[in-house]
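Form 7-S
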Amino acid sequence: MLHRLLLVLLLMLPGLASASLAAQRLQDIRLQAFAACSNLLAFYNPNQDEADPRHLERYRQGFDGLQQLLAGQDDASLKEAAAEMRSVLEEIERVPAGQVELYPERIIPLMKAHARLDHRAAELYAAAPAAEPRQLTLHRLSLDIERLLLLYQSRAFSLIGMYVLDVDDDTVPQLDGQILQGFADLKAQWPERASELSKLKQSYDFVRPRLLQHDRAWVPGSAAYYLGQVTTRLAQLDAK
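Output:
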């Protein structure tokens, strides 16, 4: 899933302005970084009996893809944050098997670096020439889904969630409300895609109870699969 998203994003690069990071590339950078971190958290989840190697492959593809998307750009803050993420990733991968208690102290710096990267990318996006309203809606929807997924995956690591977002009791319901409104707005703005968007919302609805109700069984793999399907297809629609 992450590999398909990367291919979609890379195919879009030739049309982007070389003088600066265009809004579309900034969106791609943000999505790629979120997806890479979510898959990393799913792979190193300390509450699972056995790690799913698919998450290992996806987060490595994600970090490699992030480096490719950042290649040639000249914003120092983005480059520094990405370099720190890569450095911390190497530390995480050196943790001996079975010593899961060591993961949080290494994952926290990665989440902090990701937060800096995303914040800077958001600033540059806001300063870039504005996308059309439909594309803005699609971009917000995709990012809200990625935020919710990353927050869900971070719950396995207790306090790590505070480095993903400014979290309180209203954060998850607020994100959920924004996602539902995003689907409704996008369908209204893109009636010729309404049927397909309804199917994507059904995928979100399927896993939604697990995301919202913390007393439900933990399903990091299912959350990654269904939400990954949604954001990958949204990226494909964005490319058309």
